[in-house]
Amino acid sequence: MAAGPAPTAGPGNAQFLSKVVLSVSCNNLLDMDVFSKSDPLCVIHMTSSESQWYEVGRTERINNTLDPKFSKTFEIDYFFEVVQKIRFSVYDIDNATYDLEDDDFLGSLECTVGQIVSSRKLTRPLLRRDRKPAGKGTITIVAEEKTDNRVVNFEMAARKLDKKDFFGLSDPFLEIYKQTDTDWQLAHRTEVVMNNLSPTWKPFMVPLQSLCGGDIERRIKVCACFMAPPPPPPFQAEFECINSKKKQKKKGYKNSGVIIIKKCEIVRQYTFLDYIMGGCQLNFTVTIDFTGSNGDPRTPQSLHFIDPQGYNEYLAAIWAVGSVIQDYDSDKMFPAFGFGAQVPPSWQVSHEFPINFNPANPFCAGIEGVVSAYQQCLPQVKLYGPTSFSPIINHVACFAKQAMQQNTASQYFVLLIITDGVITDMDQTRSAIVNASRLPMSIIIIGVGGADFSAMEFLDGDDGMLRSTTGEAAMRDIVQFVPFRQFQRAGTAALAQSVLAELPDQVASFFHAFKLKPPTEPSPP
């Protein structure tokens, strides 16, 4: 999906939002009291969209313990596509004042919300204010998603409905309404079954919150024909379809047909956080364009030129996307490749070479390792061409295909391609994307420089589903393209927010389609 620039880099523009509840406990804290043990309290801070720290809240104080388990929890908004910094500071409280300046500081933990939810239970040593170990004490943060992700699966049919059309049979559809305090609110409308008085509608799914606010005792209304409470799962039943006006006018009126509920089953639909907290890893691969159109890296006009501040658009894009994704990969080892360059020692053009020049181990340690490998690679290759995407897409797709054999939602692959120009292997790339759309894989393309990126927009599925040259349609839209120039004012955080906003839904919808569960089953709601 194509994305435009966000006006700010803050969570206010994020698309994926969920509520997360955090609980805090500590072990083996420093004992700052002479005649008793410490009386600990934990205060939580987060950064705003302006990168300013603000206080989220405080736990209760627990007297005389070095191993507190705080009962107060904290509900926060979780945004996948934003790096949300969070800090937990532990104090020994010795007085009744709100100010903490006169209390003993026992240590703190600064991390990201992404690190907490990806591990589900994060335990780290407490640090001093100078970021060195406090000497003693650990803190444990446990995250739980606060979301009712139950859905109701329906299979419905009807029999002998009233004939409404003059020249043919009726064209029936169903509308299901949720009861509110004052009215009925439409929750779902089925497709129309043409010319049929005994139709069977396609199976459909309605979120339980949309159907009855999570209350399975609340009544629902179907097509304004009958009223019934949501039945317990699984369920099969028949209800008379009553036309109230017809019943009043027609003596001996029985019904206007029968509505058949063939299936009504409440099930849990796993969310993105269910998959992440259940052990799914996001595997991040970086691919960099080393074609000649970038210009000589030694000259300031080149897109690969690194200025005295250590900046170019390639590095900015790597940092922006990688800083978010890295929290969801436990080992933080990221393969990084280049394409379009002549590579030593043979000086043959390669469209899939590891930028650390180690084909047996193309992994870099963290985003810092990717940046370092890129900087060291630049002077060792000769920029050439052409611009070919299909080799690296097929490369990552091979690993995604292997992951499907595990029969659980254990891995999802994210390929970042940073490029400056027009693609030359369009037909092969279209086929590669169509094939990859059936695998646990998404592709992010960031265009740097001022080139014409209309071909990239074509690969994005905004104007209809992408098809291969043989006419085969992609199963889903997995390509997200943005030109870097649209974010030069908004900043790199806004860039990351834009290109990653749809990824949670892409991950969850893929695993739903293949009925894959998280490696570790989350606790029931």
UniProtKB/TrEMBL annotation:
SMART domains for this protein: C2 (SM00239), VWA (SM00327)
Domain C2: start-end pairs: 1-126
CDD domains: C2A_Copine (cd04048), C2B_Copine (cd04047), vWA_copine_like (cd01459)
Alphabetized InterPro entries for the sequence: C2_dom (IPR000008), C2_domain_sf (IPR035892), C2B_Copine (IPR037768), Copine (IPR045052), Copine_C (IPR010734), VWF_A (IPR002035), vWFA_dom_sf (IPR036465)
Annotated GO MF terms: calcium-dependent phospholipid binding; receptor tyrosine kinase binding
Record protein name field: Copine 3
Domain of life per record: Eukaryota
GO CC terms, sorted: plasma membrane
Organism: Gadus morhua
Keywords per UniProt: Repeat
Tagged with keyword ATP-binding: no
Coiled-coil ranges from the UniProt annotation: none
GO biological process: cellular response to calcium ion; ERBB2 signaling pathway
Family membership noted in the UniProt record: Belongs to the copine family.
